């Protein structure tokens, strides 16, 4: 691997929405992160689950569908191959019936200069973890509830 072949960590997020409440407001924010070079989108899948539990894929390439999903339609070309059928099936298993979800695979490009510098100094990442945002919010709410001593 050359110095130019450094990548940032790649994450995925699965966001579930009630029924047809996917407005695309989240897409506006992630597109802003892309424009600022903070993340790179590798894959996106929109998955639906009927009230009966039937899973279906939403084709972002269809103009009518893309229009209904707001700015998520702008991500139609995000296909790297990192996201496979098994990943989509696993995401669908996590979903509640009657919901729509967006699965996004993205690279944290903000980390590339840091990783490059660490590697140039002989360092190597040996462990990494992520604390889900909801866990952080729950912990902060719990701290707010504590009485000062």
UniProtKB/TrEMBL annotation:
InterPro entries: DUF6325 (IPR046288). It holds the Pfam family DUF6325. This is DUF6325 family protein. It comes from Nocardioides taihuensis.
């Amino acid at each position: 691997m050359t110095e130019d072949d450094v990548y940032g960590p790649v994450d995925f997020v699965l966001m579930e929405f009630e029924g047809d409440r996917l407005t695309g407001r989240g897409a506006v924010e992630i597109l802003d992160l892309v424009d600022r070079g903070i993340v790179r989108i590798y894959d996106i899948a929109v998955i639906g689950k009927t009230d009966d539990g039937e899973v279906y894929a939403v084709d972002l390439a269809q103009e009518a569908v893309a229009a209904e999903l707001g700015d998520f339609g702008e991500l139609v070309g995000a296909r790297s191959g990192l996201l496979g059928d098994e990943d989509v099936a696993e995401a669908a298993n996590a979903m509640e019936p009657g919901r729509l979800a967006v699965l996004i695979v993205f690279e944290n490009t903000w980390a590339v200069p840091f990783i490059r510098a660490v590697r140039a100094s002989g360092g190597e990442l040996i462990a990494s973890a992520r604390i889900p945002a909801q866990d952080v919010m729950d912990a902060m709410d719990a701290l707010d509830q504590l009485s000062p001593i």
